Amino acid sequence: MLRLAVLSSILFLSTAVQAVTPSAQVRSVPPSGVVQSSKYRSEEVAFTNSAAHVTLAGTLTIPLGPGPFPAVVLLSDMGAQDRDGTARSYRPLLMLADYLSQQGIAVLRFDDRGVGKSEGDNAATTTAERVKDAQAAVAFLRARPDMVPTRIGLIGHGEGGNVGLVAASQAEAPSFVITLAATGQLGREMLATQQATQHLAAATDTSQTLGKRRLLAAQETKKQVEKMRAEGANSAQIETALAQQQLREKIEAQKLLSKALKRQQAMLEIIRQTADDGQAQAIVTNMLRQDDSTLDPGQARTAAIRMTTPWYRSYLNFDPQQGLAKVTCPVLLLHGTDDVEVALSNMAQLEKGLKANRHVTMQRLEEVNHGFQAPEATWPVFNSLPQPVFSPVALATIRDWIRQL
Residue 220 half-sphere exposure, CB side, CA atoms within 13 Å? Predict the structure, then answer.
């Protein structure tokens, strides 16, 4: 059988052509995590969300020169994230801040509630409360004399992008919003799709990146073609066989995803309908172990506890479309074509919700994944290990869009 791609990935693949701006060079982050530049200075700062009585700590990078400067606040994706958005050796928010501050844009990035030096309980912080944190960050920057108060925006990754859009629909809105792989689906729909896709990917393929899966698929296709040629097949026969195989795999992928999606939707609905956390956790723990026999009881219960936190429960009912009609500031929607966590179709859903706004730009970024990483072949190497970097295409797009505001 020909393995053209991981089954769960087939449904979300698309292509786009995007030129890389030569001047958009992203610096890799050394293993130490320390990045220094002669083009900006860094300040350790803290600001307070007075309504929630929490103080949040972060880093403000300010370009050298007299100022005042345009500025952005970086908002992390869901989960407990530090100010750098650290995921193993990848620090996307640090890379984004480093690049933009070298380009004359001040950047504030901060630890989520309950992470690093920030106060609060992360698991209990709902999306609505994250919006208040973002508003407090904007207010903090607007009060500084070295910032241009009318040019302070929000850049949010994943859920952070939706947080930015909600903030833009309310009073004291930011000057602009940039979303990086934000969702347009109802929270429980997005979580169900994401979890079903991840479940299938784990069951069918252990590769870590879409690029690796494509390489394996290409190698398998080459072997299949060589075998058919050796058996006397002509080009037309080979092309037909490959097309038929791809269609069969796509149909099978759709069936498997549909089945997994229904299972995830049922699990999330149980959580929504079961107010008692202990009861919900017991049911979810049992369902998780039924779905994966290799999952031990402790792991299953830990996952069930995460799925009944105040944040998770609130996110099940989060509607990213609500309030979009009230967003009047400029918006840039960015999404990678290799994003298998949040489908590319979410960008079109957001654009539809923002149709009353005449200042919306949307752009697909080729070979960019959910983490907004550049293609793996372009990664620098430290100690013989490739180190992921933020997409130069995305960086140049963000920089140029902010400059033209």
Answer: 15
